[in-house]
Amino acid sequence: MIRGIDAHIHLDMYEKLEAITILEELSAYKVEAVIAVSRHLLSCKETKSLRDAYPDRVFAAYGYHPEQELPSESEASELLVWMKEQASSMIAVGEIGLPYYLRKEAEEEGKTFDLAPYILWLDRLLEAAAQWGKPVVLHAVYEDAELVCDLLGKHGITKAHFHWFKGSPETVERMIRSGFYVSVTPDILYEEEIQNLVRRYPMELLMVETDGPWPFEGPFENQQTHPQMIHEVIQQIAKLHELTIEEAARILVNNTKLFYDIMTVE
Questions:
Q1: Distance between CA atoms of 128 and 125, rounded to whole angstroms?
Q2: Is the pLDDT of residue 1 over 80?
């Protein structure tokens, strides 16, 4: 079986026993490691506990997911202080970004949505990432990605990973020119939009992910999202880029290790 790395998963959102079972099964499913992202301070601490228990399998990123209410000033300060304390062991700042879906939901309900405070909060997180010399894991799709690219430029951040990305051809070209990475989920098997993105995006800037425990459709209907699903993602990427599965897997694993500067135990 080909080998892979799940470049984006929310381990803390699984039941604790489920998360432990998944981590214990990684070797059997030829998954070398997972990049575990976080949503807020409690999430960061839960991710850290899993990372401490499985240091050769879990590489932890700490951040604040944008698709939720903003933290209070005291909460924001507490999170940033805690993250600074973990800077030597965290591999990235993430998941961070802008609330595209939260904003669209509010607009559909006829409510006003003030994006400005979210931009300011993201700006603070990016400033911290730049100070700590850490890559960033981003939730930024469609028109939000342009704003985020501007902020990355402002802070001189070149190592940016846009997970489950969707956007305009112009934004895609901008991201490619900037050398930003994107990761692909199991929906590549049934979503034409993602297939077209992968055809266009250079292999050397691609990674694979599950975004677990987010559920998927198509051949994954009613299945618990598990890192093993990345193997079918790799196979589809290989097909779209006209590579052998083995060659695609090798490139995707190496991309992830290079971006996050990690070593794994095979």
A1: 5
A2: no
30 and 229 Cβ atoms separated by less than 8 Å: no
What is d(CA 186, CA 235) in angstroms, rounded to the nearest whole number? Answer: 11
CA–CA separation, 204 and 113 (whole Å): 37
Quick one: which of 186, 195, 249 has its CA closest to 217?
A: 186
Its pTM surpasses 0.85: yes
pLDDT, tens only, 160-219:
999 999 999 999 999 999 999 999 999 999 999 999 999 999 999 999 999 999 999 999
